[in-house]
Amino acid sequence: MAHRYFEDFSVGEVIELGSRTLSQESIIAFAREFDPQPFHTDPEAAKRSVFGGLIASGWHTASLYMRLLVDGMVSAVANSMGSPGVDRIEWLKPVRPGDTLRGRVTILDAIPSKSRPDRGTLKTLGEMVNQHGEVVMTIRGIGFFGRRPN
Predict the structure, then answer these.
(1) DSSP code for 12
(2) Which residues of the chain are modeled with pLDDT < 50?
(3) Domain of 26?
(4) Per-residue pLDDT, 29
(5) According to DSSP H, which parts of the chain are helical?
(6) Contact of 102 with 61, CB cutoff 8 Å
(7) CA gap 94, 102 in Å, rounded
(8) Exposed (0-12), middle (13-18) or buried (19+): which is 143, by Cβ within 10 Å?
(9) Residue 39 domain-assigned?
(10) Does the model's pTM come out above 0.90?
(11) Can you tell me the distance from the alpha carbon of 78 to that of 82, in angstroms, rounded to the nearest whole number?
């Protein structure tokens, strides 16, 4: 996928982004720094929670998705121009220690810019899928990508 431009993406295209396994240690370390709720940081307290055990922060899952997106797609783009944000993030199922999450992104729309002919906008659906094939997180994103130079 090296040096892809906006024009090289097709609506409906699915890009597999790779996978990562989350350890108990990584879940606790992330949560201690960024989301220190007991069901993310304390295995014993988590057993007494509504989740019945330790779970990863949704923000940990979203951060992992971002890493997979950069490694699996954005790093191979000739000119990524950032993003104005996301439309929606949904955390659908808890992520637990030992889960292996696989990322994928589907191109929902490709819109050439009318005011800036050097770029276009991709609207995407990102998903994190666990080892059981269950979608645990979705994220609807927007990104600006450079068009092929004339």
Answers:
(1) T
(2) 1
(3) 9-146
(4) 98
(5) 24-34, 38-41, 43-47, 58-72
(6) no
(7) 15
(8) buried
(9) yes
(10) yes
(11) 12
Per the domain annotation, does 54 fall within a domain?
A: yes
Amino acid at 51: F
Q: Output DSSP code: residue 129.
A: E
The first and second tokens of residue 51, run together, are: 């989740």
Q: How many residues does the chain have?
A: 150
- A 10 A CB-CB count for 80 gives 16
Output DSSP code: residue 74.
Answer: G
Residue 10 in 3-state DSSP? coil
pLDDT digits (tens, 9 = 90+) for 63-86: 999 999 999 999 999 899 999 999
Residue 2: the pLDDT is 56
Task: Return the structure tokens found at 102.
Answer: 């696989």
Indicate the residue type of 111. I
Is residue 1, in this structure, part of any structural domain at all? no
Two structure tokens written together for 111: 């819109």
